[in-house]
Write a structure and sequence with these properties.
alpha+beta, two-stranded antiparallel sheet, single chain, about 35% helix
Length: about 200
């Protein structure tokens, strides 16, 4: 998805101002209606930082100058066509998170929302999950609720919580590498199940 400036809806709630992007249905795989991207303060900071780089697209790139910094760059900005590009792969390699995929970011957002105590219906609206039934039709999350939920998940400080699936995956990876698994109930031998 190439986010476009034409989709931006400036929101002013008096105490806070931020952007919402209304993404047309035809630009969102599998959707029967438009979808919305609500910016928390971290996302809004990024949006403001790139504002003005391109007249149509929000996220763009160009090869930057590595010498002759006083000259104008010869390459114009172009829209980012895919998230799984060279920049993503380079950043992932430098950060060292292993086998991290772009879609894993949705999982992270969903887990952080749950950890922050955000109700399931609100999480579904943020993650663009379709909720069946008339109750969902008549009770969409309101903009302040969504923005507040997104503010809860922006801070990375001190996060050590993990899902059961990620703990089991790490334990299996350690067992495959020949490491012994040390747990609160004593030493486990390599190759034995994590739970007995």
């Amino acid at each position: 998805m190439n986010l476009r400036w034409a989709w931006e809806i400036p929101v002013d709630l008096g105490d806070i101002q931020f952007s919402v992007f209304e993404v047309p249905r035809q630009c969102v795989k599998g959707r029967k209606s438009e979808a919305y991207v609500v910016c928390n303060s971290a996302a809004q900071h990024i949006v403001e930082k790139v504002r003005g780089q391109h007249k149509e697209f929000v996220f763009v790139w160009r090869r930057e100058q590595v010498k002759n910094f006083n000259n104008e760059p010869t390459m114009p900005y172009s829209p980012v066509q895919t998230m799984n590009n060279t920049a993503w792969q380079t950043a992932r390699s430098k950060a060292g998170p292993g086998d991290l995929h772009v879609h894993d970011l949705r999982h992270t957002a969903g887990m952080r929302l749950r950890e922050a105590g955000v109700p399931e219906d609100t999480r579904a609206d943020i993650l663009w999950h379709v909720r069946p039934g008339m109750t969902a039709h008549y009770s969409e999350a309101q903009i302040r609720e969504i923005r507040a939920a997104l503010e809860l998940i922006k801070d990375e400080t001190g996060r050590v919580n993990r899902s059961m699936r990620s703990l089991a995956k790490e334990a299996r990876a350690g067992a495959c590498a020949g490491e012994s698994l040390q747990g609160p109930f004593g030493q486990r031998k390599t190759g034995q199940p994590l739970w007995s």
